[in-house]
Specification:
- 2 copies of one chain form a homodimer.
- Chain A is of the alpha/beta class.
- Chain A has 2 domains: about 200 residues, Rossmann fold (3-Layer(aba) Sandwich); about 100 residues, Orthogonal Bundle (6-phosphogluconate dehydrogenase C-terminal fold), CATH 1.10.3660.
- Chain A is about 55% helix and about 10% strand.
- In chain A, the strands form 3 sheets. In chain A, strands 3-2-1-4-5-6 form a 6-stranded parallel sheet, sandwiched between helices. In chain A, strands 7-8-9 form a 3-stranded mixed sheet.
- In chain A, strand 1, helix 2 and strand 2 form a beta-alpha-beta unit.
- In chain A, helix 4 crosses helix 5 and helix 8 packs across helix 12.
- The relative contact order of chain A is 0.12.
- Chains A and B meet through helix 8, helix 9, helix 10, helix 11 and helix 12 of A and helix 8, helix 9, helix 10, helix 11 and helix 12 of B.
């Protein structure tokens, strides 16, 4: 397991079995086929499966058949079902294809890793999270180019199998993404700050603006529209990701609350917003100026490779090739 | 003063004197000329004035000459200087052109109204606020189409002169905007919610995200980018508008803090974000579904006209014509 892996196109260019054909899974099936992979999909409801077949893809509603084929062809299995469906799907994976490399595309990695461990699938599992999406959902909203130029987190834990990591990273690269390595816990802490917190701030802005009545809403322009945009996301999706990451989100929310409470005090006492406004400007500039450097010198499977990858990710590194 | 005004193109199609040729003033000079008005501009620094002349506009650096011409030609005088320059400019207006209709384009209306009263100019003053802008500034960033389709608040106080109100509203309509009537105080309360609060939330998001280090910034995608976009605005501009509206902003900020504090408590105790997420979704939908209806039945100058306009504005009404 800990032998260095020599990566070649042949060794990793394996079939892909996509479980769940919604926006992300459906886009992934398209992208994998476009990259020249053999790929097939499963969806619980026949609607998406039929749409996929009508669009020329190999798809069906028989989970056992999809997984038995994955075992026969040594496919990478991608779990792309909504969070509530995770457990029954993992149960079938453990029964039909326990030896396959397994990944997922769910936005909170700690909860998925726990579920995978419960089902005894950790040895071949590598968590994944493509940072891409739209407000739409379903097979028809999918797009084979959805992941092009996006960041795809591929989780590297100390017990991750190097060959499995390489296969999952190769799939993300084949879909046109850059790979950022991270541990599940630090991924969840990061997305609490840059994805789940902005959702809660957007909700609070939307409510406070509407409390100003139709006059306030009629005057709302760019800063309101951008600041509250994601409050238009379906509440179920927002709740699912925020609540699955409650612990890390609480930490991020507390930091934002402290900043805003300090600003409120300064505004009321000295009439100044200097501290928050100057810090916010510097922070946003730091994002805009971020240099995403290429990770090129880490041999996957060499001693300490996972920690080396995580460390590079923490310092803003990304893989564009293997 | 309280006689109903019969509005005709002839009676209102007056010259325009624009004081300050930055983004808003420069765009206004272009838009007024494009609408067929005689218009000229003043700017303290010669750079913008020279650029305007080079672009074929009538502009200079002599404030007294611009204002004496305004008095001779009975022009509408538009104050478009940065807030710190307000007092010296109003002093010259009071000296050279006290009888001209006077308006402004500053984003906080209460503070400007106070300054105008201090200079004894309230009788001919009508506050204005075009809800348009870009991240750029200066003459060269201006655009004669900047106000097209935008909302332009034209303040209606109980002591506003009907003829002056009509002239300022006509100018806003000539620039392609729709006119939303409001009192200065309720305008400031509204913009605290939809413009100044989103700036502070964006700053807090930017700082909290950056505290997650380069990994968090590398993963930042749409919800971070939109939510923190206005944190990239020059700090001086953000501070000027937030601090000039400190009282109303404190109220809005307290409401947002209460929502986020409640959400934090619910997340930590029950793991749920339902209350905030559902309320935010409904509020954003209310904005998206807002029906901006046309105000057509109010005669400017008839008894109670200003209150009738403000009431219509509160209920989402706007003027598209006079």
């Amino acid at each position: 397991m800990c032998q260095p892996v020599r990566v070649s196109a042949e060794s990793t260019d394996r079939p892909v079995c996509v479980l769940g054909l919604g926006l992300i899974g459906g886009s992934l099936l398209r992208a994998a086929v476009a990259a020249g992979r053999t790929a097939w999909g499963y969806n619980r409801s026949a609607i998406a499966a039929d749409e996929a077949v009508a669009d020329g893809f190999d798809a069906g509603t028989d989970l056992v058949a999809a997984l038995e084929r994955a075992r026969r062809e040594d496919a990478v299995v991608v779990v792309a079902v909504p969070e509530p469906a995770l457990d029954p799907v993992l149960e079938q994976v453990a029964r039909c294809a326990p030896g396959c490399v397994l990944t997922d595309v769910v936005s909170v990695k700690g909860a998925v890793l726990d579920a995978v461990r419960r089902h005894g699938l950790a040895a071949r599992f590598v968590g994944g999270h493509p940072m891409a999406g739209t407000a739409q959902s379903g097979w028809s909203a999918g797009d084979g180019d959805l992941f092009r130029g996006a960041v795809w987190v591929v989780a590297a834990e100390d017990d991750t199998a190097p060959e499995a990591w390489t296969r999952v990273a190769r799939l993300a690269l084949d879909c046109g993404s850059v790979v950022v390595p991270a541990g599940a816990a630090e991924h969840d802490q990061a997305v609490a700050r840059i994805s789940h917190l902005p959702h809660l701030l957007a909700e609070a802005l939307a409510v406070t603006a509407a409390s100003g009545g139709d006059l306030a809403l009629a005057l709302a322009a760019g800063s309101y529209r951008d600041g509250s945009r994601v409050a238009g996301t379906a509440p179920g999706l927002v709740r699912a990701m925020c609540e699955a990451n409650a612990q890390a989100l609480t930490v991020a929310l507390d930091e934002a609350l402290a900043l805003l409470t300090d600003a409120r005090r300064a505004l009321a006492t000295s009439g100044s917003t200097e501290a928050l406004v100057e810090a916010g400007y510097r922070a946003r500039r730091r994002h805009d100026d971020l240099d995403r450097w290429d990770i090129t010198d880490i041999e996957i499977g060499a001693p300490g490779w996972a920690e080396a990858l995580r460390d590079a990710g923490r310092r803003g590194g990304a893989l564009r090739a293997l």
